[in-house]
Amino acid sequence: MRSQVFLAGVIALVGAGLPALPAVADETPMPAPSAAPRTMSTDSTVLPTDQFIVKFKERASIQSLDRKSSLNRAAGTIGVPVQAVRTLATGEEVVKTDQKLGAEEANDLVSALVADPNVEYAEPDVIMRPFASKPNDPLYSDQWAHSSVDSGGMRVLGAWDVSQGAGSVVAVIDTGITNHSDLNANILPGFDMIHDPLVAGDSNGRDSNPADEGDATYYGECEPGWPGYSSSWHGTHVAGLVAAVAGNSRGVAGVAPKAKVVPVRALGICGGYASDIADSIVWAAGGTVPGAPANANPANVINLSLGGLAPCSTIYQNAADFARSKGASLVVAAGNEGIDASKVSPANCKNVLVVGASTRNGLKASYSNFGINVDVAAPGGDMASVFSDGILSTLNDGLTTPNSEGYFYMEGSSMAAPQVSAVAAMMYSKLPALTPADVEQRLKASARPINGCGCGAGLVDANATLTKVAAEAAPITAGTPTISGEAAVGKLLLAEPGNWGNTYEATWNYQWNRWGTPIPGATGNGYWVTEDDHQATITVTVTATKKFAPAVSATSEPTAQVAPGTLFGSVPTITGSAYVGSTLTANPGTWGPAPVDLTYRWTRNKAGTTGEHVSSAPSYTLTSEDLGSTLSVHVMGSKTPYSLLEMGSQPTAVVVAADKAVTPEAIVFTEAPYMGNDRYTIPESETMDYQVDGKTLPAGTHPARGQAKITAVPKSGYAVLNGATSEWKAYFSAKGPEFMAPAVSPFRDVATTQQFYKEMSWLADRKISTGWVEADKSVSYRPVTPINRDAMAAFLYRAAGSPDYTPPAKSPFMDVATTQQFYKEMAWLAETGISSGWTENGARYYKPLTPIKRDAMAAFLYRLVNKPDYEAPMNPPFRDLDSGQLFYKEMVWMSVAGISSGWQLGENNYWYQPMEPINRDAMAAFLYRMP
C-alpha cells in the first residue's frame, strides 16, 4: 500500500496520484483494490520566499559596485541582508535574503528596489508547486483518454495512422524522471535546473542529472502547519503520458509513443522557484543558461504541468516569448482551483497554449480552471466516484526515494497538458514547418466543443487534428485544366481546374495567357476575351498553393484562334411627325462595346415596292415624294474586330401633307377634395384619338384615380405638328381635406386614445367603413380583426368614390357568386385591374373570405392609384424583402410614398412582414396615408 503523498510549495502540480499498480506483462495494468488512495493538497496560497528577481537598467556607467549599493539600500528598508546569487538566462539577477519574507515584507522590498534609479523592474521569485487535486477510490485500469468510443476520449488511435511523434522532442519541466522500463527508451539527456541543494535533495544544486530524487516533505517543512507528503514522482507520470513506449507488451502507451522526452528538473522539495522554471524553459528551447551545457535536443514542445496564484511575471513572459521565437510550443496546465485561469501563472501569460481538464464523459472537470485564457481541454480525469476515471501513467512506488516502477492513476490539468503536448509533438513530426501559432490554431479548429465549459475551443481531437495536418502536408498532384466558353472577342472564358489531389487548405491562382505569354491582370478564374486577343490562342495556367507544400501548376490546352466579337445594339427609333417638311431623326440607342461606328440608311416604303433608299444621314426631311409612303431607318454598326450588326426601326405613319399636321387640343384635369370626384375631360376631335394604356376613350369627362396619363394619337390622314404637346400626365392626390377626429368615437370598440383612432374615425366619416351594427344598435369596428379580401374590395371601391359601375351578369371569379355580399366591389376590382385573383386550371378565383396579406395589400393600393411611374431600388428599405420576390416594387413603394414604415427592430433595422395578415386598424391607417 502507498501512503499519502503531497508536494508542498506555492504552486501545486496539476495531478494527484492514486495507489500503485503492479508492473505486469499485460498492457492493461490492474489496480490493487486494497490500496489506499493518495491525496495531494490543492492549496495554492502564496508561500514566503527568500529570492527576488531584479532587472538592472542597461547603462554603460552602471558598475557592479552600483548594483551592490542598490541592493544594500533596498535591504535597509526592511532590515534584512540582500545579496546577488546568480544571473538568469534572460539577463536578470536573482537576489537572496537571509530569511523568507512574508507577502507584506516582500512587497516592501520589491517597492524599494523598483524605486532605485538603477533598477528597471523587480518581482518576487515565486515558489512553484505541482498542481494537485483530491482523488477517490481506485477501480479502473484502461487508458480511456485515448478512446474513440468514450465521449471524453481524444481518439488517439486514428491519429497514429498519421504519426506517432517520431523525430519530435517534448521537454517536460517537472520533478525530474525516474527509471522506468516502459519509458526509458524514449528519454533523452536532460538537466537538473534546481539551484538550491535543499530543494533539489541531491546536495549539489544544478547538474546534468535530471533524476527525480523525491520531493517528500515532513510536517511544517514548507511552512508552519503544512502537512508532510510522500514523494509524488509527478514528472515520471507526465512523461509517461507523453511518450510511454507502445507495443512492448507492458504497461501503458503514451499519446506520442515514438516521440522523445527531455526531462528538466525544476520542482523539488516544497516546489520550485519561478527563476529555475524560467531558465528551464529557455534551456529546453535551445537557449543559453549560464553554468548549464547546451541542450543537444532542443524541444519542439515544452510541457509545464505546474502553476500558481500569481500574475504572469516578467521572467515567465520573457521565457515564453523566447520559446516561441525558437519555434517551440509552450503547453501549460490551466490549474485545478476551479477558478478563472487568468488568476493563475503561467497560464495567464501570453504565447502559451493553456489546457483545461475534462472528464471521461466529455465534460469539464469540476476542479479545472476555466475562462478566456484557456485554449483547449484534454482528459484530466475525475476520480470522485471511481478512481479508474482518472488518468493512468507511469510512476515510481517509492515513498520518499525511488523504488520499483509502477503505474498509477492521477487526475488534474497536469494530466491534460502532457496529452496535448503529445498531440503537438505528432503534429510537428508530420509537418515540421508548423509554428506554435499553427499548432494552436489547428488544435482549436479540430476540437470538439464542450458546452458550458469555459475551456476554449473544447476537447482536443487527436484523430481530426492529425488527419488535417496530414492533408496539409501531402504534396499536391495536378489535374488537367480546361477552358469553357466561346473563344471570341467579348465572350467570357471560364477555367475549370480539373481533378487535383491533396488540395486541402489550398489556394487557387489563375493566369491567362495569349500565345503562351501571361496577360497582365488576367488572374481570375474567368477571362473576358479582348480585342487584343483576336486571332490568338488562349490558355490558362492554374496554380494550387498550400502553406506547407510546394506550389504546383498546370496549363490547359489552347483554345481555337479567337474569332471576331459580336456587337450589341438597340432597335432604332424615329422622332418627328410624318408630314411633308417635317424632319425625322434616327435615335440609334445604345451600341457597344463603345465606340462603334454607325451608318444610316433611310428607306421610303411604298405599296408594291421593295423600298427605296433616300438618305444616309442621321436625319431626313420629308418631301412631297414621300406622300403616301412610310419611312424606316436601318442603323449599321462596325468595329474591328467585330462582325457587322444592322438594326431596323419600325416604319413611321403614312406621310401626309403639311396642312394635315395639327396641334391636339389639351386635356383638362379637375382635382376635387376627394378621390371620388377627381376628373379629366377629353375634347371632341376630328383629327385625334385620345388613349389611356393603348385604349381609345370617348370624348367627355372621365373619373380619375391617382396617376392619369393620356396620349393623343393622330387619326388616319393626320399628324401631330412637331413641337406640339401630345401627351398629358397628372397625379390626383388621394388625400382629402385635413380631418379632425371627433371627440366621441363612432365605434363602440374604438377608444379615442387608441392607436389609429383618427384614421378609423376618418373611414366612418368618409363612409368607407360602416362597421357592424350590434344587437343594441351600437356600431363596432373590430380593429384588431384581420380584414378579408371581400371587405378590402369594398374599402377600395368606396375610397375611390363609389364610381358608377354595373357589374357583369357573370362573375369574373369562380368562387364569387353574383348574389353574395360585395360582389359588385369585387367585380370592380377585376374590371379595373386592381386584382387579377388566382388562375387555377384555367379558371380565376378571388378567395373572398381569406384575410389579405400585407404583400398583396401593397399591390392593391399601388394599382388603386393607377401604378404611378416608379423604379424600385435594388436595396430595399425593409430587411425582410428581396428584390426578386412577388410584389417587391409595390411594397417598397409603400415606404417611399409614406404609407408604411414597417416595424423597427433595432437601429436602422426595419421589417415589413409581407406574409402577415393586415388588421382593420392598420388598413385604416394605410388608406388615410395614401398620397
Characterise the protein shown here.
This protein has 16 helices and 49 strands. It has 931 residues and is α+β, with helices and mostly antiparallel strands. The strands form 15 sheets. Strands 8-9-7-11-13-15-16 form a seven-stranded parallel β-sheet, sandwiched between helices. A hairpin with a 5-residue loop joins β48 and β49. The longest helix has 18 residues, at 413-430. The protein is elongated. Mean pLDDT is 89; it is low at 1-45 and 132-141.
Note the main attributes of this structure:
alpha+beta; 24% strand; elongated; 931 residues; seven-stranded parallel β-sheet; 18% helix; four-stranded antiparallel β-sheet; 16 helices; disordered N terminus
Shape: elongated
Strand content: 15-25%
Annotation field: number of helices: 16
Structural class category: alpha+beta
Could you tell me the number of beta strands?
49
Radius of gyration: 45 Å
Largest sheet: 7 strands, parallel
Give the uncertain stretches in residue-range form.
1-45, 132-141
Distance between the termini: 94 Å
Output the strand order for the largest sheet: 8-9-7-11-13-15-16
Helix content: 10-25%
Q: Can you give the mean pLDDT?
A: 89
Quick summary:
This protein has 16 helices and 49 strands. By secondary structure, the protein is of the alpha+beta class.
Please describe the topology of this protein.
Elements: E1 16-21, E2 49-56, H1 64-78, E3 82-87, E4 93-101, H2 103-115, E5 119-124, E6 127-130, H3 156-160, E7 169-174, E8 191-192, H4 197-200, H5 234-243, E9 260-265, E10 272-273, H6 274-284, E11 301-304, E12 306-309, H7 314-325, E13 329-333, E14 344-345, E15 353-358, E16 376-379, E17 391-396, E18 405-411, H8 413-430, H9 436-446, H10 462-473, E19 482-484, E20 492-496, E21 507-514, E22 517-518, E23 526-528, E24 538-546, E25 549-555, E26 565-566, E27 573-575, E28 583-587, E29 597-605, E30 612-615, E31 619-621, E32 630-638, E33 642-643, E34 645-648, E35 661-662, E36 668-670, E37 679-682, E38 688-692, E39 695-697, E40 700-703, E41 707-714, E42 719-720, E43 727-731, H11 757-765, E44 772-773, E45 779-780, H12 789-799, H13 823-832, E46 838-840, E47 843-845, H14 854-864, H15 888-896, E48 903-904, E49 910-911, H16 920-929
Parallel strand pairs: 7-9, 7-11, 8-9, 11-13, 13-15, 15-16, 26-33, 35-42
Antiparallel strand pairs: 1-18, 2-4, 2-5, 3-4, 6-10, 6-12, 12-14, 17-18, 19-20, 20-23, 21-22, 21-24, 24-25, 27-28, 28-31, 29-30, 29-32, 32-34, 36-37, 37-40, 38-39, 38-41, 41-43, 44-45, 46-47, 48-49
